[in-house]
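job 3f2a | input accepted
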Amino acid sequence: MNMNQPLLTVIVPCYNVEKYVDKCISSIVNQAYTHLEILLIDDGSLDRTGMICDAWQERDSRISVIHKQNEGLAYARKTGIEHTTAEYVAFVDADDWIDLNMYADLMEALLTTDSDIAQCSVCEVYEDGRMNYLGNKQKNDSVEQIGRIDGVLLILKDDWHSWMGTKIYKKYLFEGIEFPKGRGFGEDYISHYLFHKVTQSVFVHRHYYFYLQRNSSITKSKNIAAEMKKISDFSDAYYDRYCFTVQHSEYHEALPFVKYMTVYTGIHLLRNMIALPQYFAKDNFSEKAKQMRLISLTKADKLRRGVKIDLHMLNISSGLYIFIRSLYVRLIKLTNHLKITKRQTSFSITDLFGWWQ
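job 3f2a | predicted structure (357 res):
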């Protein structure tokens, strides 16, 4: 271990990842950058994940395991931050892995440019072996220094820049940052707060982070309850971004996109609350409807006609909105029950109301 290297804490939230966590941890312990503190946060796993983490702790003195009750990915990261002793912090999701030179190169870029955050490009890896290299290919292998405003705008306009695993942060950036408890999707959407505090960041345009697209992950789940939770988390994350962007005029360039995504995800959530009320708490609808009414729209905002109609009805009356949307849901269910699906013989209720989608 090179003690001249600043200590870097790597936080790995782990939940039911027994099939993947070995590959993840192996990619961290074998880094060319050796002065690491590795915190494995077992977030109440129900499989062998906790035991695998304990076994790694026995094998490598740099590893510590924290077993805790399940509170979601965001709070697992928060737990790691609370236990770190280093000035620099990084995160890796337990089903992903990283290039062996990632931390050596990012730390070099961070220190030589006197930046507060260093980040790299990401590669999506699919279980069938396909790989999708994200980022600006024209900038591959370059190192780019980015000022505070441009850094935040990248986050607000282009979601993949939000991913926390592709970055090394100075720990001080997390002071006063609120981690959304229980959020399992959109948990990276606190990144704009972190970039808002920096003087500058540095981007190493190399694909060092490998993001596994597994069919059973949070983002791929076909379970209805999980899907509804995902939509709700995503909507809450975007509304938070909208409020942040409105409050900071230097980022208003991104406001049209942020507003569009906030409205779209909010209306999508409200529609699901009416169609599938059993998956939501009683007061969820009124809270989200209130948020949608607080969003200030202009003629320049480009929204689909159906979304505009939803917003107009919400502004008139939540009761009216619930009544009309409930009627629509009943018509769709009747259509499905009667199996009116043959395009060559007739149109369906979905076709009739397609203007409202």
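job 3f2a | The first helix runs from residue 21 to 29.
job 3f2a | closed
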